[in-house]
Amino acid sequence: MAIWKRLASQSAMLFASRLFGAALTFVAQAAIARVYSSAVLGEYLLIMATTNLIAVVMPLGFETVGTYFTAEYRARGEGRQLWAFLRRSYGHIVIVGLLLLVFGAPVASMFGEPGKVFASHWAPACLLAFSTATIFVTGAVLIGLKRPLAGFFPDAIFRPVAVFAGFLLGLAATTRAASLDYLIWGVGLGVATVAALQFVYLISALRSVPTDVPARHGEARRWWRFAAPWVIITLATDFFFDLDLLVLSNLLNRDELAIFGVCTRFFALVSFGVGVVYSLTLPDMFESEVMADRVGFHRKVGDANLVASGLSVLLFLVVAVGSPVALLLFGPAFLAGAAPLAVLCLALVVRSVFGPASLVLSVHDKPYATLPSVALGVVALIAGNLLLVPHFGLMGAAIAALVSITLWSAAQWLTVMRIAGVDVSIRARLIRLRGAAVAPAPAAE
């Protein structure tokens, strides 16, 4: 099967699972807004955003490169090296998690409104952060082992099930404040169970990687060289809107924050369908790089771009037409998010067209080269919010995000062109398609 056909079929399956999980999440969030208020939903979304950001930091960046190094060690049959990487990754989570639980509460209260909200639900929020960080690491490793369903399903399906179960648990509370605490406890315990089961499966899957080759010394330095920039890249890309919500918490009221938060969750669903294409491609890309197959490497990047760009355009059209109906489930006030949500999804099209620049730089052992582009995007986001949100509200926040994503995507594309000499945008793939279409047929003998 051609790689683009495999990517399309697997991406469709994983996106369908994500859609099912997102439906449960949206039902729970809509119920919170309907049963309690949009202000309570805004506080819940703020807790979840803070928890996600903490969970990304807890492995100290090792979850962001887990797929990369797992694919490398699997391709080379270096099981002992992979085990060493895993011990370091989970060790970071345990150490940082203990420090967070014991010393984090006073520090959190110093970070304004998001820190105060997080500290008010400290114990369950810490459990949720620890479990989420574990799922991030385990899922990345399973994808590198070419088990994408096991890598994505816990986060795509089972974590949303835990959110829905947590809401049902919250209904048992007698007061509104207690119901939110019950909800966070329910989600934390559910996600912890999912993380444990996925970890058990990973231990079984690791048996397929040979352990005959001794582990090399000095690999830890290489892990850090990749992980340090990638944790920043991941925070500014995959968790872009979690970071954005923390900034907006000081510019929007709780009701507006809830509306924009729901829009970002819709965007995250759409973004997942595109991002999974590149995640599925990474092991194949690395194998081509190891074998010095430059033609194959460029072809796989181009095929992934073609699928991702087409999917992002399709999803943009679906969201533009169907978002008002979906937002109405949360209440009439949430219809104000329809136009900003369309702008956010347009940003996804822009990002897909420019291609997976950060992944290609990592494959070429240049992960730090992406940091200036990321810094440009974050500065543009903060400046855009400060300038536009006070005057244009939700639409100002959406436009600030669009400008930020466009700037950093274009900057990363130019960086790859300058350093690696590779055009990772959809432009390169379209040129090859046009060249193949106009190529003369071979002469008959």
Computed Rg: 22 Å
Shape: globular
Q: Span from first to last CA?
A: 31 Å
Query: What is the domain tally?
Result: 1
Tell me the series of helices and strands, N- to C-terminal: HHHHHHHHHHHHHHHH
Q: Assign a percent range to the helix content.
A: over 70%
Q: Please outline the major beta sheet.
A: none
| Structural class label | mainly alpha
The number of distinct helices, counting runs of at least 4 residues, comes to: 16
DSSP strand content: under 5%
Oligomer: single chain
Average pLDDT taken over every residue: 81
Beta strand count: 0
List the uncertain runs.
none
Model description:
- The chain is globular.
- It has one domain.
- It has helices spanning about 5-35, 40-55, 65-75, 80-110, 110-120, 120-145, 150-170, 175-205, 220-235, 240-250, 255-290, 295-330, 340-355, 355-365, 370-420, 425-440.
- The chain contains 16 helices and no strands.
- Helix 1 packs parallel to helix 7, helix 1 (about 5-35) packs antiparallel against helix 11 (about 255-290) and helix 13 runs parallel beside helix 15.
- The mean pLDDT is about 80.
- The protein is mostly helical and about 450 residues long.
Which structural traits does this protein have?
single chain; 445 residues; mainly alpha; globular
Tell me briefly what this model is.
With 445 residues, the chain is mainly α. It contains 16 helices and no strands.
Spell out the blueprint of helices and strands.
Layout: H1 3-35, H2 38-57, H3 66-76, H4 79-108, H5 112-119, H6 122-144, H7 148-170, H8 176-205, H9 219-236, H10 240-248, H11 254-290, H12 294-328, H13 338-354, H14 357-363, H15 371-419, H16 426-438
Helix pairs in contact: 1-2, 1-7, 1-11, 1-12, 2-5, 2-6, 2-10, 2-11, 3-4, 3-6, 3-11, 4-5, 4-6, 6-7, 6-8, 7-8, 9-15, 10-11, 11-12, 11-13, 12-13, 12-16, 13-15, 14-15
